[in-house]
Design a protein that fits this description.
By secondary structure, this protein is an alpha+beta fold. It has two domains: 1-35, no CATH class; 44-111, no CATH class. It has five helices and four strands, in the order βαβαβααβα. It has helices spanning 20-26, 44-48, 63-71, 77-83, 104-111; strands spanning 9-12, 31-34, 52-56, 97-101. A two-stranded antiparallel ribbon has the order 1-2. Strands 3-4 form a two-stranded antiparallel sheet. Helix 3 (63-71) packs across helix 4 (77-83). The protein starts with 8 loop residues before the first strand and ends with a helix.
């Protein structure tokens, strides 16, 4: 399953995307992009109740790759992203510590 299959799409109507040249060059009437996901915020108690691995972000890392490595399921990328309050990799910096929940089913239950 694609990580984008449940993401909503938005029309980007920012001024920089309204150029007739840009739209004409792309052969479109509007720029459609995926919306940034919004995750449920865990309470401090919920967050602190989860055991986790410490991981340091490296250049080229992706949430889906980490989910595949730690859980054997790349579709669970959102668990790592949500647990770290980071909806996209664009927010990450090399060397930044993130937490990867150990018990997948427990943390998924907290996000429901």
């Amino acid at each position: 399953m694609s990580r984008y299959s449940t993401r909503s799409r938005i029309i980007n109507d920012s001024e920089q995307y309204q150029s007739d040249d840009l739209l004409e060059n792309r052969g479109v009437k509007e720029i459609v992009q995926f919306d940034t996901p919004k995750f449920k915020r865990l309470t401090r108690e919920e967050y602190n109740s989860v055991k986790y691995f410490r991981y340091y972000w490296r250049n080229g890392d992706r949430f889906w790759r980490l989910a595949d490595k730690f859980y054997g399921d790349k579709t669970k990328w959102w668990v790592i992203a949500a647990f770290n309050f980071t909806p996209t990799e664009a927010e990450m910096e090399e060397g930044q510590e993130i937490r990867i929940p150990k018990n997948l089913s427990t943390v998924i239950g907290l996000f429901k």
